[in-house]
Amino acid sequence: MTAPAASAAPTVDVHAHVLLPEVEALVAGLPGHGEARALDARRNGPAALAVSGPMVRERLPRLTDLTVRLAAMDAQGVDVQLVSPSPSHYHYWTDEETAEKVCRLANEATAAHCSAAPGRLRGLGLVPLQHPGHTVRALDHALDQGLAGVEISSHAPGRELSDPAYEPFWTRAEETGAIVFLHPFGCTLDERLDQWYLSNTVGQPTENAVALSHLIFSGVLDRHPGLKLVAAHGGGYLPTHIGRSDHAWSARPDAGAGCAHPPSSYLRRLYFDSLVHDPHVLRELVRAAGADRVLLGSDFPFDMGTEDPVGALRAAHLPQADFDAVRGANASALLDLALS
């Protein structure tokens, strides 16, 4: 499908979440669950947990109730959401059998949620990054459910996204045209970020930058140029600090050994959501990656998102063609949305 006319394209939010209680019921009480929850508590700190619990409970209707979601979308002026499971559902601590159950349940539940409003919602599933040998099957299962692709974190325990064990997954994602939404959950800086919600404000953009750097410097994007990878949170710190990566690539043989081109050139092979919370940073993201590579994102409905994604985009004062591209034309083409 050719890209729709920018002015006619629907407004598409590619960063929106659904909460799946059935996934949490599946893993509750299993060996390793308590340890995973304790690690999450250490990484975030008690003050953050005291705020996050009530915040999620208050937003539970928007995360689970289709009617409430659609009403909120209407209020925001959003026509279509690309809905992904809450990253809290990754559960990369689970064994192979449980991980397969988690992914299948998440895929089926997300597909069911989205299928109730097919003109308004598209969905993403999950794959078990902790078990690379199962990722292709989980991706195929997600696509079989009618989902547009899958959501992944920035790493799995003991494995970076540059790990050769993921090559079959990247190959399958590329050949199927599946969207891979890179959304970190948790930061390995751990207790260094356990105050003032640094686990999110610093941790998420750091994890995005590290994960994308692994994909660039390792040559994954050279080997899979057709990969449709969307980075949450505007790609974190990387797009605005990519000059340092370019310098290392040209100045040091160890930095430049894995990828064929300057790191900055790969930004135009990736997609980024617009959720950077600063109009000046958003303008720089558009400059660095290209207006055709930035997609509207809100992190619906969490408090670290934006209640007015179109307004946040408008505040960047982009040229009208760029505004329309980010607002929906780019995502419409990526998701192959038919115009009504």
TrEMBL record:
- Asked if the keyword Lyase belongs to this entry, the reply reads yes
Q: Which InterPro entries match?
A: ACMSD, Amidohydro-rel, Metal_Hydrolase
Instruction: Domain (Amidohydrolase-related): give its ranges.
Output: 12-337
Transmembrane intervals? none
The protein's matches in Gene3D superfamilies, at most eight in alphabetical order, are given as: Metal-dependent hydrolases
Q: Name one GO biological process term.
A: secondary metabolic process
> In the UniProt record, does the keyword NAD occur?
no
Q: Name one Pfam family in it.
A: Amidohydro_2
Record's keyword terms, sorted? Lyase
- Domain of life, per lineage: Bacteria
Gene Ontology cellular component terms for the protein in this record: cytoplasm
Any one GO molecular function term: carboxy-lyase activity
- Put simply, this protein is called Amidohydrolase
Instruction: List the lineage, top down.
Output: Bacteria, Bacillati, Actinomycetota, Actinomycetes, Kitasatosporales
